[in-house]
Design goal:
The chain is α+β, with helices and mostly antiparallel strands. It folds into two domains: about 10-95, OB fold (Dihydrolipoamide Acetyltransferase, E2P) (Beta Barrel), CATH 2.40.50; about 115-415, BirA Bifunctional Protein, domain 2. It is built from 14 helices and 18 strands. The strands form four sheets. Strands 6-10-11-18-17-16-13-12 form an eight-stranded mixed β-sheet. The protein is elongated and about 85 Å long. Its EC number is 6.1.1.22. This is Asparagine--tRNA ligase. Belongs to the class-II aminoacyl-tRNA synthetase family.
């Protein structure tokens, strides 16, 4: 019977066949131990020479790392094994004997591993990170579908910037200028006016020459947008969503978290509601902690980390100054110098994982913002139309998938949280 490592617990004491790759091996006299992987997990296969015969035993001992094979054996419960089972091998059938594998079970430099990213993905830790990423994506769809959101796909090629910045990748669209999208948000606002509550999940691009552990050139974002919803209601959606994905990973990725040696006690504390601190109070807190920062400046990584360390849950920093935020954010009703927005800062120094706001719904005020930011009326006319034809209060946010994966999995650098990272000076493989 063919099965997978993930399903092997359903076949205790039965004979099964796995299609697998040899991740590693060792032998001790008349016993060989094969570390096998099949994409769903890892398991140890044990060959006893007396049971499989001289020829099969010799084949197993001579197999090279990452060779592919069919392995047949009896599933045995073993509480010492990460999966809880091992395979008492009765037969092997070699599919392909691999050439000398470049990534051996030893330390390799980051640049070497990144050059071999297409192979590095096979390692146990990278496998665990990708499985956690997949679970976050699965849980995202589950949460928003359950809450009545409609999935909408915004374009990747756009005629203008979502935030009026210059950090865009330019390309030619026949005889016009076009750019790779840095956010689907504006299009999601249009979708929300049609469908009420919507979300997108797709790639975004920032031509930002940053080399920090938190930045990628190409990354994926989840961007919900909600009609008839104010800022405070949006914050509740955000904290419930984050709570949901963390709890899903804790429930469904126990083995992966163990492989990564993630301290799950800190994740178990992640339950809504999350604490909130205003930008004003955050500035005061940082100044009292000895940071040289004045009101009106944006926060850098050290500032976000210092604020996060004061809490054991993600923390919302609310009501940033208008001048350092995007043109579309709605002003605070009691102050014209700050806007109704929030950044959600993850614990343990992982930085901002969500940025969100209530959007301007007044046509005259949005026109004023166009003028202040020197935005092209022609390029943004369709966005203004949303305020002319049935405008309503609406809010939304964007969650960066890779930073969220890094935080939940306990991975230091976001380059390991996406299958093939695009970094400054790295477009290969």
């Amino acid at each position: 019977m063919k099965t997978t490592i993930k399903q092997i617990g359903q076949h205790e004491n039965e004979s099964v066949t796995l299609g697998a790759w040899l991740a590693n091996k060792r032998s001790s006299g008349k016993i060989a131990f094969l570390q096998l992987r099949d994409g769903t997990g890892f398991i140890q296969g044990v060959l006893v020479k007396a049971e499989v015969g001289e020829e099969k035993f010799k084949q197993a001992k001579e197999l090279s790392q990452e060779s592919s094979l069919y392995v047949t054996g009896t599933v045995k419960k073993d509480d010492r094994a990460p999966s809880g089972y091992e395979l008492a091998v009765t037969d092997i059938d070699i599919i392909h004997e691999a050439s000398e594998y470049p990534i051996t079970p030893k330390e390799h430099g980051t640049e070497f591993l990144m050059d071999h990213r297409h192979l590095w993905l096979r390692s146990k830790k990278q496998h665990a990170i990708m499985r956690i990423r997949n679970e976050i994506i699965r849980a995202t769809y589950e949460y928003f579908n359950h809450e009545g959101f409609v999935k909408v796909d915004p374009p990747i090629l756009t005629a203008s910037s979502a935030e009026g910045t210059t950090e865009l990748f330019h390309t030619k669209y026949f005889d016009e200028d076009a750019y790779l999208s840095q956010s689907g948000q504006l299009y999601m606002e249009a979708a929300a006016m049609a469908l009420g509550k919507v979300f997108s999940f797709g790639p975004t691009f920032r031509a930002e020459k940053s080399k920090t552990r938190r930045h990628l050139i190409e990354f994926w974002m989840i961007e919900p947008e909600m009609a008839f919803m104010d800022h405070e209601e949006s914050l509740e959606v955000q904290e419930n969503y984050v709570t949901s994905i963390v709890q899903s990973v804790l429930t469904n990725c126990k083995e992966e978290l163990a492989v990564l040696e993630r301290d799950t006690a800190v994740l178990e504390k992640i339950q809504a509601p999350f604490p909130r601190i205003s930008y004003d109070d955050a500035i005061t807190f940082l100044q009292n902690e000895g940071y040289e920062i004045t009101w009106g400046e944006d926060f850098g990584a050290p500032h976000e980390t210092a604020i996060a360390e004061a809490y054991d849950k993600p923390v919302f920093i609310t009501n940033y100054p208008k001048d350092i935020k995007a043109f579309y954010m709605k002003p605070h009703p009691e102050r014209d110098d700050v806007v109704l927005c929030a950044d959600l800062i993850a614990p343990e120094g992982y930085g901002e994982i969500i940025g969100g706001s209530q959007r301007i719904d007044d046509e005259a005020l949005l026109q004023q913002r166009y003028d202040e930011h020197s935005l092209s009326a022609d390029a943004y006319q369709w966005y203004m139309d949303l305020r002319k034809y049935g405008s309503v209060p609406h809010s939304g946010f964007g969650l960066g998938l890779e930073r969220t994966v890094a935080w939940i999995s306990g991975t230091e650098h976001v380059r390991e949280t996406i299958p093939f990272p695009r970094l400054l000076n790295r477009l290969y493989p």
